[in-house]
Specification:
Layout lengths: L21 H4 L9 H20 L9 H12 L5 E2 L9 E7 L16 H15 L3 E7 L19 H15 L21 E3 L6 E6 L5 E7 L5 H15 L3 E5 L2 H17 L9 E5 L16 H27 L4
Parallel strand pairs: 1-8, 2-3, 2-7, 3-6, 7-8
Antiparallel strand pairs: 4-5, 5-6
Length: 329
């Protein structure tokens, strides 16, 4: 009488010496899984990733991965910074705002400053308005022009000019201040107060008068394509104007390299030796609030997240290049 097939028949069987039968040892479980399972899994992963990229989660604050990237940037921040509005220290002669990539997703000239570049400008202009900085310098050259489409006009401006236009917009709309800072607060300042000064060496500068009728100067340094160029050209311009105390406004992830490059130029440049230049990095208090610039949802927020992660690893490579190959820091 034949025995009916049992569900235990497919289990591994042992020989008398405790080893698996050869038929079981050579058995490949993946051969029993239909190929359709793999295809379905791949399709599901592709659709899920595509949906997340196009429909990122809505949030009014940092998401966990965004907070992680923010902490990465803080690793490279300089903690010996200058920011307090309440100290009695004499104001810095000039704030140097370092350039950053422009926003190429818009054709509007007045909206070319990217999110992080706006943050750099705002921190410098805030100190300027409270008279903690007497003058401002914007340092950054023109980016490479994009490939134009037919019948498309594309205006390419320098990072310095984009920052200047945004800064003028800020001080023109600045609110009035009452209270303890009323005597020193110098904004708002009308656009018409800026008078351009002609120069023959490729630099532009503007002289203006604030609400207290005190003159100031804003300089556009438009020939820098790297942090090294920023340091050399801005420091030489500062010496030319007699500015000896400098505060540099740049993002957290860029402060480590920027500070060391500036100090290296000060110590090595013949024209700067003996100048007794005081250098500080400007604390970026709004870096932790960067998400207030970004939309609460949409692909733009996802794009900015990947840009921030890319900037961190790119900065690590730049530090290694500046230190090991170029000896600039």
């Amino acid at each position: 009488m034949s025995r009916s097939k049992s569900t235990f028949d497919g289990l591994p069987k042992l020989t008398k010496d405790g080893k698996l039968q050869k038929s079981i040892e050579n058995r490949n479980p993946h051969e029993e899984m239909p190929f359709a399972y793999f295809a379905a899994l791949l399709i599901f992963c592709a659709v899920s990733i595509d949906w997340v990229v196009k429909h990122p989660p809505s949030a009014s604050e940092f998401l966990p991965l965004e907070r992680f990237v923010q902490r990465q940037h803080w690793i490279l921040a300089d903690f010996d910074t200058e920011y307090s509005m309440n100290d009695e220290k004499t104001a810095f002669d000039v704030a140097v705002v370092l350039g950053y990539r422009l926003n190429e997703r818009t054709k509007a000239v007045d909206d070319r400053c990217s999110y992080r570049l706006k943050s750099r400008v705002e921190h410098a202009i805030e100190r300027f308005c409270y008279r903690k900085v007497e003058n401002v310098m914007f340092s950054g050259a023109s980016p490479s022009p994009r490939k134009k489409k037919k019948n498309e006009e594309d205006v390419v401006i320098s990072e310095a000019e984009a920052m200047f236009k945004y800064a003028v917009e800020i001080i023109a709309k600045a609110p009035k201040v009452r209270g303890r800072h009323e005597e020193t607060y110098r904004c708002p300042i009308e656009r018409e107060t800026f008078v351009p000064l002609e120069r023959g060496d490729g630099f532009r500068s503007y002289v203006g008068r604030d609400s207290k009728n005190v003159s100031f100067k804003w300089v556009l340094e438009e020939n820098s394509y790297s942090t090294r160029d920023n340091a050399e050209k801005s420091l030489l311009l500062a010496k030319e104007h007699g500015w000896k105390s400098i505060v540099v406004s740049t993002s957290h992830f860029h402060q480590f390299r920027a500070k060391r490059v500036f100090k290296k130029v000060i110590s090595n440049e013949k024209e700067l030796k003996g100048a007794n230049i005081e250098l500080k990095m400007l604390k970026q208090t709004r870096e932790a609030e960067l998400m207030r610039y970004l939309p609460k949802d949409g692909s733009e927020r996802t794009t900015e997240f990947f840009i921030a992660e890319f900037e961190f690893f790119r900065e690590l490579l730049a530090i290694a290049y500046y230190k090991l190959i170029r000896n600039w820091i």
